[in-house]
Amino acid sequence: MYAQMVETGVDAVRTAADMGGDERAFQARIDADIRIEPKDWMPEAYRKTLIRQMSQHAHSEIVGMLPEGNWITRAPTLKRKAILMAKVQDEGGHGLYLYSAAETLGVSRDAMTADLLSGKAKYSSIFNYPTLTWADIGAIGWLVDGAAIMNQIPLCRCSFGPYARAMVRICKEESFHQRQGYDIMLSLARGTPGQKAMAQDALDRWWWPSLMMFGPSDAESVHSAQSAAWKIKLLSNDELRQRYVDQTVPQADHLGITMPDPDLAWNADRGHYDFGAIDWAEFHAVVRGNGPCNRDRLATRVKAWEDGGWVRDAAMAHADRRAARAAAAAA
Amino acid sequence: MTSEWPLWEIFIRSQHGLAHKHAGSLHAPDAEMAVKNARDVYTRRNEGVSIWVVKSSDIVASCPGDREALFDPASSKVYRHPTFFPMPDEVKHI
């Protein structure tokens, strides 16, 4: 999940008794699965929560380009390099779809960028882990994009029109990402013992962080409950995580590599895999800024923004001058 | 820091013969760059054969509050649809 622990600004789920006429009509439309569009009336808390969620999602796409970008120059073949460049370009595109969808709610692109660069806005914890070997590129496509798809498919039905439409477009493209990752893992798993060991090592390092992507158990969270009532969160974190585990374990079996979880076992009674306890202390440390790469990721984004400043200025100055010339010629 | 690049709405025609359809929006300093950026952002997989860009600030939209006044009158005029008129089975080509 690219948006984790999104605050809703409420301390209890809004009930009909809390709501005025506008809000009751708004909630009735959501309950009837009618999409909310940017110019429709909406509660301020819904608007702000969506801005937080969508901008966090967009930031994750943009920061998510960094761990993979790390391997573009060192991809093992030209074919892998071309594929990886296309994949990373897609992530940039996904960030842009989401930023512009968020802008329909009245927040500016620059304000969202400023919040990312100052550390005020979050992005997914997963991108604060390093990509140490080429196998990590396979593991990210397979596991991280797999987890993202699991989260994003239900969001295609979310209540806010521009977000849902962006998600439809993104989901169509994500499937390529996951398959290219699994394809890398397949090549390694079928390769030399050393290559297979690389695949196993990548799985060992990425499995638990990918489970953390879905966020903490949300049974207790008032924010999750409110987001569910607003239909901007369609399934609980635990539900999504379980589906992800059930779907991914057989894929690891096919590769002949092993999940780094001694408690992982099929539970015939539940019809699901049981899995071990997640280290939430690690998750919270990463979210607070103390993951292996937090400082590096943010510093890279800040540098890109600052180094690109003169380009943005020059392009705007050029456009202004041409517009002024055209106006003078017309006069 | 300078001001933000203006926002453009992007319309893509997916195939010859179909209409341009709204695809999304993006920021660009001018129309030419908007077309170039739209090509990278919205047509990476052969989604289009033609791109229109329109400054978002130039779009005039109907107001959600006018929805009933604008669109409800049409719902009582079902006779505008051909299926309103039952035709005898033996009458063909109509």
Give a brief outline of the structure.
The complex is a heterodimer of chains A (331) and B (94). Chain A has 13 helices and two strands; from the N terminus they run ααααααααααββααα. Chain A is mainly α and 331 residues long.
* Quaternary organisation of the protein chains: heterodimer
Question: What structural class do you assign from the helix and strand content of chain B?
Answer: alpha+beta
Which segments of chain B are poorly predicted (pLDDT under 50) over 5 or more consecutive residues? none
| Uncertain residue segments of chain A | none
- CATH 2nd-level architecture of the domain at 2-58 in chain B: Roll
Major sheet description of chain B: 3 strands, antiparallel
- Describe the global form of chain A: globular
Task: Please report the number of helical segments of chain A.
Answer: 13
The coarse silhouette of chain B is elongated
Strand order of the largest sheet of chain B: 2-1-3
C-alpha termini separation of chain B: 66 Å
List the helices and strands and how they pair.
The complex is a heterodimer of chains A (331) and B (94).
Chain A: H1 21-31, H2 44-63, H3 65-69, H4 78-103, H5 109-118, H6 135-155, H7 161-189, H8 193-212, H9 222-229, H10 237-255, E1 265-267, E2 272-274, H11 280-290, H12 294-307, H13 309-330
Helix pairs in contact in A: 2-4, 4-7, 6-7, 6-8, 6-10, 7-8
Chain B: E1 7-13, E2 21-27, H1 31-42, E3 50-55, H2 67-75
Antiparallel strand pairs in B: 1-2, 1-3
Describe the structure.
The complex is a heterodimer of chains A (331) and B (94). Chain A is mostly helical and 331 residues long. Chain A is built from 13 helices and two strands, in the order ααααααααααββααα. Chain A has a two-stranded antiparallel ribbon with strand order 1-2. The relative contact order of chain A is 0.12. With 94 residues, chain B is α+β, with helices and mostly antiparallel strands. In chain B, strand 1 and strand 2 (21-27) form a beta hairpin. Chain B is elongated. The termini of chain B are far apart. The A-B interface holds A 37, 39-41, 86, 89-90, 93, 96-97, 100-101, 103, 108-110, 165-166, 169, 173, 309, 312-313, 315-316, 318-319, 322-323 and B 1-5, 7, 24-27, 29-30, 33, 40-41, 44-45, 61, 63-64.
